[in-house]
Amino acid sequence: MNVCPLPSTGDDRVLLGHGAGGRLSADLLTGHVLPALGSAADGPLEDAAPLPGDDTLVMTTDAFVVSPLFFPGGDIGILAVNGTVNDLAMRGARPLALTVALVIEEGLGLAELDAALVSLGKAAGEARVPVVAGDTKVVGRGHADRLFITTTGIGRRLPELSPSATRARPGDAVLLSGPIGAHGTAVLSVREDLGFATDITSDTRPLHRMVQALTPLGSHVHTLRDPTRGGLAAALNEIARDSRVCVRIEEPALPVPRQVAGACDLMGLDPLHVANEGCMVAFIAPDHADEALRLMRALPEGQDATRVGEVTDGPAGRVVLRTLVGAERLVDMPLGEQLPRIC
Amino acid sequence: MNVCPLPSTGDDRVLLGHGAGGRLSADLLTGHVLPALGSAADGPLEDAAPLPGDDTLVMTTDAFVVSPLFFPGGDIGILAVNGTVNDLAMRGARPLALTVALVIEEGLGLAELDAALVSLGKAAGEARVPVVAGDTKVVGRGHADRLFITTTGIGRRLPELSPSATRARPGDAVLLSGPIGAHGTAVLSVREDLGFATDITSDTRPLHRMVQALTPLGSHVHTLRDPTRGGLAAALNEIARDSRVCVRIEEPALPVPRQVAGACDLMGLDPLHVANEGCMVAFIAPDHADEALRLMRALPEGQDATRVGEVTDGPAGRVVLRTLVGAERLVDMPLGEQLPRIC
Questions:
Q1: Domain that holds residue A75
Q2: What is this model's ipTM?
């Protein structure tokens, strides 16, 4: 009997998809990173972690490797600040301080470095968070791709709020603070190997003021998350898993700008999988959803806030989409290989 | 009249030397990074920065890009923990928590990633500091060199100590906790383009317990610094600059292991410029120097602690070496291009 050999899955090496925020990323995290670090691999993974001994302080870190460095609506510098400020905000914290570590490829133009750093400094100023420490390393040509920035943030939790990926409950309204899909399609639109032109611009912006605006709702704010890598699909799947609930979203309610939808069609992407850098999804106790929408819409960054779904008592860990024609389809965690280096 | 054009200095691009911890690094920092971030470019640059609003907490960040990833006596994982723990310790702080951000080159073997991460986890366990948050990015082949790790640490200052690069005073004894030059020469010894074999091993180790052991000396501990990139020469020059003092070290007292001296001779390096990852220099009020040496020598990591010089009332900002024959020579800040990617 002949036996077909299994094709090599390449699973003894790191693949691009391991970094894209989807199922492969989760595999790398739970199968390799967390066990090696002695961390519990089955606990909820939040956007920021409380400090041991003082859980009013939370910390988060992100490596930014976006390519190209400059794209419509933003650049690596502004992304490095807003991404970190937003991870703190999703735990109900206001940013206290940032650190910035640069890895620079030899030969990068100082003018480009300056432009990225000035943008970073400006974004930090606008978010009113100081950069307190930094590090600069230079590696030889071909050993990095121009510039990587790792930002770490520390924040103090607003005492009124205690959002967590574990606190979504059946009945919760699922709100979205703005349209989805702009960041990922803006970055891809200027990637040289795709090279089509649109006027889609990244939605990168800090979200901590909008979170602060929700403090009157107190503990009725159950869960906050910014749907970055892996898009809204990944964010909702993580929340459904960590809260052990079912999330149903309504396709007609999803705010996908026409141009984003067109670009996604062209590239064969699902807008639900595309990274965002300036919107958040909020799970709010049902009786307080309208108030939450009102508070969010009062700010420029939340003016298009809208309700997109709810938490049901369906199977735990599942995310379903009710389509335009009333059918339901499963929203999977993206596998993850389609959108590398989007942030 | 003919005018010779000036040769291009390449100063519109980032050079390898900009990352080596010497004068070029300082130029990049004060000429580009700090102004862009809106930070004061003339203040003292310490190993870790106090948190705004709570100066009992300090933060530090470091990007580790060492090549190769594994070298005699250590690897990138252990370096990423010890380097950060030590930067906190140099401000008199014990480590509370670490964050870890990985940038992985597509194709890195998972076995190598695991080995580096297990080593990182083990080092964190030994220093009793938890890794509370992390991030993982993957970039395409040729867009990074295998693995970069950025570690950020937060620590709480020991109330007894307030060491600072600005507090060295004339009369202070300059102590060194152990021999110098091992880390840099160990890494270079296995770089493929040098490829000579020695049995020099990196001195990487955490130093926070030794700092804690100095608490009985209280404010008599003026300055602590781990002489990493740029070596002892850079550390002493920074302290002389920030404290506005003159530092004199005695060549016969410098603990340079015979094998390190031989390797440096072979490579044309000055052991004073070579990175260390497991020793510290301490500036101690003169009447308490012997007690400091006794406390340091009581621990394995300080068993070879020794006095190497003193602070004099000579010209501010100057570091001089009294040679074996009694002559004095200036110890310059290394220019910085000779030892890239040593940490």
A1: 47-157
A2: 0.92
